[in-house]
Amino acid sequence: MGQQHLLLALMVSILVATSAATTAYDILEQNNLPRGLLPQGVKSYVRSPDGKVEVTLPAVCEFFVTLAGSQYKFRYARTIGGIVQSGSIHEAYGVEIQVKFSWIGINQVERAGDQLTIQAQKFRQSFPVNNFNESPRCI
């Protein structure tokens, strides 16, 4: 009888875990980051116990974000990732921002209140979080 209850409890917990499956967008929101940091159309993702998240997109993706009349162009490789923690992404890879005429790899994103600061080598730029409320469409 005890084994039957244990088996039943195990099956219920597997069903609950399966129904509570999250998306890559949910992982961002659960860590106080806007879902719009990821473009539309994520194909798949892998989440490691250490917080590393690797996301696969259907193709290379580019889009613009406007700040105070200036447009910043972002480029996402087919595979992107980083260590996602509450309010930040560290050791990011696969994402670049165009600064003047060159592309610089983004290595960190941090949220402080209503600001999202993106760091790429020696370049650092803050954006209002609401610029990333919705997932952008690739161009």
Care to describe what's here?
With 139 residues, the protein is an alpha+beta fold. 18% of the residues lie in helices and 47% in strands. Strands 1, 2, 3, 4, 5, 6, 7, 8 and 9 form a 9-stranded antiparallel sheet that branches. It starts with a helix and ends in an 11-residue tail after the last strand. About 11% of the residues have low confidence.
User: What's the number of extended β-strand segments?
Assistant: 9
**Distance between the terminal alpha carbons, to the nearest Å?**
60 Å
- Biggest sheet character: 9 strands, antiparallel
Approximate strand percentage: over 45%
**What's the helix count?**
2
Q: Secondary-structure element order, as H and E?
A: HHEEEEEEEEE
Rounded mean pLDDT is 87
Assembly state (oligomeric): single chain
Compute the CA-based radius of gyration: 18 Å
- Using the alpha-carbon principal axes, give the shape: globular
- What structural class do helix, strand and pairing data support? alpha+beta
